[in-house]
Structure formats: structure tokens, C-alpha cells
Amino acid sequence: MLLKDAHLGNIEVRTLPLPDYVKAPSGTYTYSGTVLVDYKREGDSPEFVRLAVTGDDGAGFREIFAGEIKRIPKSNGLRFMVFEDNKRILLGDYVLECSPGIDSCESASLIPVVYPQWMHKDERVMFHWSEIIIAPDNEHICWTVLSRSSAAVMLGRLSRKEGAYVIENIKTFSSHNPYINDPENEGCAIPQPQRGGEVKQFVHGGIAVSMVGGGEKSVLPDPVVVDLSSEELEQITFQPGYEETCIFSPDEKLGMVMSTRGSASTNCAIIGLVPRPYGLLSVSGAIWAVYTLAVSGARFAGKGNVGPALIDINKSMSEPGYMGVLLNDPEQKWVYLSPMSWHPNGTKAMWPEMVSGNPKEKRLRVVELKDYVPSPSVPAAKTPEDIPFASDGALDDWLDPVGNSEVKIAGKHSGFIEIAKQRGNSSTSYRHFSDDGKLFYDGYEKTSLTAELDSVYEACFKAQDETTGDVVGEMNCRLTFSRCGSGHERYMKLLLEPAEDGKPKSYGYARHEGKVIDVASMA
């Protein structure tokens, strides 16, 4: 597939050729520019793992490891994160040490990673790691612990001991309380920056982390970068739909983004089109439904895509409406899978794809920027351990189930936002809320999320510029998501048939500054 971008020039997308016996391949670039491929052969058991290295033209395919790897309870399977020394691979619960190196591996040793024992024993922990990444200093790791109600992001030093790697000096740096008391308005709270969600990549040489989150302008998730030595949080994308991952190029000028921006029928941009204060807090209850429609649905229901999109980082952060270059299969037969990775020369990137509905049929895709001249790679730095917003110790604040909550936020000029949450249900009321005395918000949005029944998101509000009288943004819609199935049926659909009130189960529109999205466009 040949593409052309006015900014990046000629771009080629192709499939990595692999031997016929290679089944269900996934892969990632190594720091030498080879490709590490994990795959199956016919007859291999689910726990049997094969790893090989090859050129990104398919030349020199060579197996470096084959054997069963025991899955650890409460882990999220296996990840293949290459150390920058190009001698080791972090798998999540193991490190594979390759001698003399990955590309020329003659012997490979599987060494267990020791996590704190309470993570395995605490019943509240669903996954002691969900995503896990290794820093360029070859020493620090970052990962996400998932409970049934929250996600905690942790950082530690991976220390080689006799027969094991032990994680030491563990810090937790995700936000666990989204509010603090408002000292100037009795009974009110002040929302805090949200540092949480799954981690994706060490950036800025290893002193910051790219992760799933959102900034002040987010309604649905966007990739963010959290600086570990300060409280700075940078939002990387500003799309109204669902965005989850940004993997930066070696010079950190470009990014590969998991995104629904090229999938109008599934991206749920109708929810995020109208910017509103603290929108991510308001719609947090609907994000699971959006994910299972936009991501799981694309992978297993045969509708839509989840990217990837190739972006210029500066343009993404500064130019409203910037779309980048969509790299997905235009026929939407093949659907993006994680992970994304960059060649060390900064002109090529890679990701796996699966046939929608058939996760056993996979391929590896390579994008090559024919005209792009990269800047020098960002040099590796020592990952900081003295994180001013981090904490030590157990995770009771994160792991305990989220109870009922009611929060009132005072506008800096006038009015209030009231957010109420119970299990599976949330509602937000905008009561002539204004921070600047110019733009005022009135109305409501609410979510009812259930596992056994249909889930519903509703919104009816407006944002009005009272200096001109113009309504600059408004929503009047209802989205009904089908009950989520299990296994390969673990996705939701948008329901359009009539509801008990005589209206369609999903209907309505969102409008912002002249752009309109109607539910009918998602049919």
C-alpha cells in the first residue's frame, strides 16, 4: 500500500514475509533493527513459545528460543519488551537472557521476575501487571496493576539476583484521588490531574512515561506523557473519539497511535465532540462501553478499525483537527493489534494485525517513510526514582472497591458541576457552570453500565457564549450498547431498534462550532 502525505512525503505499508510454517505471528523491532517474532507452529500448545529474529525484509529468519513458559496467575500473559542492551527480553513474569545477544543467540535462559508477594495474594488484584515496559537505562521498569475498580501505575528497579530478577524501590505514581477539598467553596472539591491508565513507553530518554489518560481537554481517553521528575502532564492527541496508545519514534518527532479516528461508525466521537470541563470525569463510566464497541467490536464483530495512525507529535499537540496518516487496512478485513514499535533508524515502524473475528490469523505490517529525515535519537538517561508525586507501600487506596460518591465543583465565575457515581451508574449535572464568565454550561449527562443488560449513555446539555448568545456546543443524544458477551463475543454493539419509550435505542446528535455528528452516521 502506497500513501503520500504533504508533510511526511511518500509512505509504504507492506507485510513482513515469513516462512509458511509460522503461525499467528506477532513481533517488535529490536534495538539493532532486527525483528523479534513470537509465533506458533502447527500443533504447538498454548503455553509453547517460539521466538525468532529476522530482517524486516524476511531475510535470515532464525529461531532463538522454543519451549513452554508457565503462565503465572494474575499476569496478563506474555509481553516481549527488548532491553536496550539487546541481550535481554522482558516477558512480564520472566526475563529471557540471550547469549551472546539477541541477534546471535546461541543459548537462552528464562529467569523469573519477583513481584511483591501481596500482589499475588490480595484478592482485590485482578492482574499484578497489565502492561509492562523497560526503561532505556536497562534497569527500571514500569507497570500497571489492575483491580476490579481501578488501575495503579508502579515504577521499580529491576535487580538481577541469584536465580531471579527482583523489583526493588517500588513507587506508585498514579492518581488515586481525583479531588481535593475546595478551601474557598464549602462542600465543593477541586479536580486533580489524572495520572493513571496503562503505561506504554518510556520517553524523553527514560525520564517520562507515555500512557493512557487524558488532559483538561479530554472527554474520552487520549495518550499523555507524565514527567517523572515534576507534575507536568502533556496531552499528545486531541481527537473526540477513542485514543489509547502513542509509541514515539526514536527522535520523538513522530508517533504511532492506536486510534479510532478513521472509523466514524465506531469511534463514538459523538461523546467527545463537545469539549466540557472535567469531561473525562463525567464520562468515565461509559469508557468501557466505548472500548468494547470501538476496539473489541472492530477485532471480533467485523466493523470499523482501530488504526494505527502515524502522527507528527507537534502537529498533533498544536493543530486542531489534525488527522495524521491512517495506516489501517482500507477494506477493514485486517485489524490492528499491539504492540507498535519503531526501527532504531526512525524511518520504519511495525505492528501486528489479525483478521477480524479470527485471532489465529495474523500478519506483521511494516510502514516505511521513504522521504523522512529523522533527527538524532533522544539519548538514554537515568530514570528518576525521587518522584515528587509518588508514594510507597501498599495499594489499599487503589484496590478498595469504589463506593458511592457525590462531588460538587464550583465554577470560578459561577455555577456548579455535580457528579454522582454508584456502581455502574453515573450522572453529571451542569448548573450554569462557568469558569470565565463567558461560556456557560447547562444540562446533564448520565451513564448506566451493566454486565447483564444493555448499557446506556445519555446527554442533553449546551455550552452557550453569553456575550454573543451563540450556542457553541450542544448534545442531545442517547447511545444504547448491547450486553457484552464472553470470549470472542466479548464486545458490544450499538443498538438502533425501538426502545420502550418509542424512540430508537440510540438517537440524537452532538454539535460543536459548526461540526455535527449524528447517531445515524454510526449505523
Can you walk me through this structure?
The protein has 523 residues and is mainly β. Strands 7, 8, 9, 10, 11, 12, 13, 14 and 15 form a 9-stranded mixed beta sheet that branches. It is globular, with a radius of gyration of 23 Å. The two termini are 28 Å apart. The model has no long low-confidence stretch (mean pLDDT 93).
Distance between the termini: 28 Å
Tally of strands? 37
Secondary structural class: mainly beta
Shape: globular
Q: In which range does the helix fraction lie? A: under 10%
Q: Please report the number of helical segments.
A: 6
Summarize model confidence as the mean pLDDT.
93
Ranges where pLDDT stays below 50 over 5 or more residues in a row are none
**Radius of gyration based on Cα positions:** 23 Å
- Largest sheet properties: 9 strands, mixed
Percent in strands? 35-45%
Would you summarize the structure shown here?
With 523 residues, the protein is mainly beta. The protein is 7% helix and 44% strand.
